[in-house]
Amino acid sequence: MNKRALYKGCLEPIILKLLQEHKRMYGYELTMMVKEQTKGEFVITEGALYPLLHRLEEEGILQAELEYIGNRPRKYYKLTSKGHTAQQKAFQELSNFIETLQLLSKPAQI
User: Fold this and answer.
1) Which residues, in sequence order, are bridge partners of residue 74?
2) I need a surface site. Which of 25, 33, 54, 70 has the fewest CB within 10 A?
3) Which pairing describes strands 72-79 and 25-26: parallel, antiparallel, or unpaired?
4) Which residues constitute the domain of residue 78?
5) Residue 110 domain flag
6) Which CATH number belongs to the domain containing residue 58 in this structure?
7) How many domains, the chain?
8) Which residues contact 16 (CB under 8 A, 6 or more apart)?
């Protein structure tokens, strides 16, 4: 199975967890943080990240703040109160999924 397909389902919980830990981040910063923390194993493309950020903003899970760095606008994202709840739920679901995979990877006992 392709790693990209496996990573795709993990993207939302990872982004929400990073925003919970760092309070506020912009898109490129999120991609670099994931790449750094996974030692380059998990690379998020703009095509995957920005539609997710926009959807989460529309759903009220994220709030965006526009800030100018010099003449360039930078959009920072942070969790709303609804986002904190969504982050906990998403990460718990991911943890449960990982536990299930670990059970399946153990040798069968007869």
Assistant:
1) 67
2) 70
3) antiparallel
4) 3-104
5) no
6) 1.10.10.10
7) 1
8) 56, 61, 79, 83, 86, 87, 90, 91
HSE-CB of 98 using CA atoms within 13 angstroms: 10
Q: In this predicted model, what pLDDT tens digit does every residue of 17-32 receive, in sequence order?
A: 999 999 999 999 999 9
Look up residue 89 and give its two tokens: 């739920």
In a domain, 69, yes or no: yes
Give the separation between CA 28 and CA 75, rounded to whole angstroms.
Answer: 10
Query: DSSP secondary-structure letter at 63?
Result: E
d(CA 92, CA 41): 22
Asked, for residue 109, whether it belongs to a domain, the answer is no
How far apart are alpha carbons 105 and 109 in whole angstroms?
A: 12
Q: How many CA atoms lie within 13 A of 61 on its CB side?
A: 21
| Residue 76 contacts residue 25 (beta carbons within 8 Å) | yes
Pair of tokens at residue 77: 């994202």
**Nearest to 81, CA basis, from 64, 65, 58, 62:** 62
Residues of the chain with pLDDT below 50 are none
